[in-house]
Amino acid sequence: MQVTTRPEPEQADDRRVLPESTFGRGARLLSLPLGAAARAGVGMGRRLMGAPAEEVDAALRDAAAEQLFQVLGELKGGAMKFGQALSLFEAMLPEDLAGPFRERLRRLQDAAPPMPSSRAQAVLRSELGPDWRRTFAEIDPRPAAAASIGQVHRARLADGTEVAIKIQYPGADTALASDLRQIQRLAAAVSPLTGGLDVVALTREFAARINEEVDYTLEGASQQQVALALEGHPRFLVPKVHLATRRVLVSDWVDGFKLTGLIGRPDEERNRSALDYVTFLFAGPSLAGILHGDPHPGNYLVMPDGRLAVVDFGLVSRLPDGLPTAMGRLIRHAVDGEIGPMVSGLAEEGFVEASIDGQALLDYLAPFVEPASVEDFAFNREWARGQFARVHGDMSSAGVATSLNIPPEYGLIYRVWMGGIAVLSQLDVRANFAKVLRDWLPGFTD
Question: Per-residue b/e over 267-278, b at no fewer than 16 CB within 10 Å?
Answer without folding.
Answer: eeebbbbbbbbb
